[in-house]
């Protein structure tokens, strides 16, 4: 075995972005939406619905995302305690995402320039993506099954020159359009509703989409869907079911994930005068002589693997060659090793 210390130029660091589908089965677009009757019939449904790509009883069923309704006043949900008004599952969801996104218990959610006290949350299941969602890959279609009004939403990542950040990372506003492109039929230059602000927010670094309840409740002429979100106090309004129906009726939810893969390229250089002899003890006789005279005048060796060691001589990684590489004084070799992490 022979050793050689790397020079500074022998190690190069590179990074590249890899885009992959989010949904199960490597599907870019999710076109079927299912809930679990067990989950919907349980107490957790007061907080959220898990959405599957197939019937929840199917062996291939996996949670794709969850939907939840949040209301600052706690409307649309039953009180935890009739003596404490406003404390409900919807207020709990509101407080949870206010802390997560805004990092405070005081500020309100602003969509564009409009403040809204209620919204929906679509939380992509963490198992569906490795690092983050890809801005500009979103097309979320919603339908009002009763009126037939249709809404296609995307993010404005292609429209803005400066990225906005919150405690949860990057944030983009939702506009009418698809795949990051504003619709030509948008109600105004921003792609927002008339008077209700943006349709919501995309937070790609945590896999969350927030839908502005005020915008979704706007009339179709103003760019909304008129979902008739029920904000009555101390009422089990099943608002989670309304957004699920709007998704299920549309049958299309497209988004992709993005992962930055960092690679170390290590260049192992075997010059003509190096690595031509073998350290295999079977080449030496008991008296210390070479068994094969060819190794005296025309030595040669076959490189089959390269080991990477630290300064303590600890083996850190091994690179195997696809076939043995012949090496002698008339040849130089260059082996490129790629380490991804």
Secondary-structure blueprint of this entry?
Layout lengths: L10 E11 L7 E2 L6 H4 L8 E4 L10 E9 L17 H14 L7 E2 L2 E2 L2 E7 L7 E2 L5 E5 L6 E6 L8 E3 L2 E10 L2 E2 L17 E4 L4 E5 H5 L21 H12 L2 E2 L1 E15 L23 H4 L2 E10 L5 E14 L4 E8 L1
Antiparallel strand pairs: 1-17, 2-16, 3-4, 4-7, 5-6, 7-15, 8-17, 9-10, 9-16, 10-12, 11-12, 12-13, 12-14, 14-15, 17-20, 18-19
Molecular structure report:
It is a single chain. This protein has helices at residues 37-40, 89-102, 213-217, 239-250, 294-297, and strands spanning 11-21, 29-30, 49-52, 63-71, 110-111, 114-115, 118-124, 132-133, 139-143, 150-155, 164-166, 169-178, 181-182, 200-203, 208-212, 253-254, 256-270, 300-309, 315-328, 333-340. It is mainly β and 341 residues long. The strands form four sheets. Strands 2, 3, 4, 7, 9, 10, 11, 12, 13, 14, 15 and 16 form a twelve-stranded antiparallel sheet that branches. Strands 1, 8, 17 and 20 form a four-stranded antiparallel sheet that branches. The chain has a two-stranded antiparallel ribbon with strand order 5-6. Strand 18 and strand 19 (315-328) form a beta hairpin. The longest helix has 14 residues, at 89-102. The chain is elongated. 30% of the residues are buried.
């Amino acid at each position: 075995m022979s050793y050689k210390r790397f020079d500074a130029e022998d190690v190069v660091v590179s990074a590249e972005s890899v885009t992959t589908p989010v949904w199960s089965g490597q599907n870019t677009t999710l076109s079927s939406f299912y809930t679990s009757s067990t989950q919907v019939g349980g107490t957790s449904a007061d907080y959220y619905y898990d959405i599957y790509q197939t019937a929840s009883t199917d062996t291939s069923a996996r949670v794709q995302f969850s939907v939840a309704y949040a209301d600052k006043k706690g409307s649309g949900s039953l009180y935890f305690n009739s003596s404490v008004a406003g404390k409900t599952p919807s207020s709990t969801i509101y407080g949870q995402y206010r802390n997560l996104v805004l990092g405070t218990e005081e500020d309100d959610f602003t969509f564009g320039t409009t403040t809204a006290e209620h919204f929906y949350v679509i939380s992509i299941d963490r198992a569906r993506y490795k690092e983050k969602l890809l801005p500009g890959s979103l097309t979320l279609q919603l339908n009002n099954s009763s009126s037939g009004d249709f809404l296609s939403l995307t993010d404005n990542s292609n429209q803005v020159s400066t990225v906005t950040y919150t405690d949860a990372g990057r944030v983009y506003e939702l506009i009418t359009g698809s795949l990051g492109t504003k619709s030509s039929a948008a109600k105004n230059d921003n792609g927002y509703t008339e008077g209700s602000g943006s349709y919501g927010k995309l937070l790609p670094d945590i896999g969350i989409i927030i839908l502005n309840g005020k915008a979704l409740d706007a009339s179709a002429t103003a760019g909304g869907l008129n979902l008739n979100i029920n904000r009555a106090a101390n009422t089990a309004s099943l608002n989670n079911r309304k957004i699920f129906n709007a998704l299920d009726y549309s049958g299309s939810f497209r988004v992709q994930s993005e992962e930055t893969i960092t690679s170390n390229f290590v260049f192992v250089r075997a010059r003509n005068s190096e690595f031509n002899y073998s350290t295999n003890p079977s080449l030496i006789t008991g008296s210390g002589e070479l068994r094969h005279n060819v190794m005296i005048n025309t030595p040669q060796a076959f490189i089959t693997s390269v080991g990477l060691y630290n300064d303590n001589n600890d083996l850190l990684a091994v690179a195997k060659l696809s076939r043995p590489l012949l090496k002698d004084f008339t040849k130089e070799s260059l082996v490129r090793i790629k380490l991804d992490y």
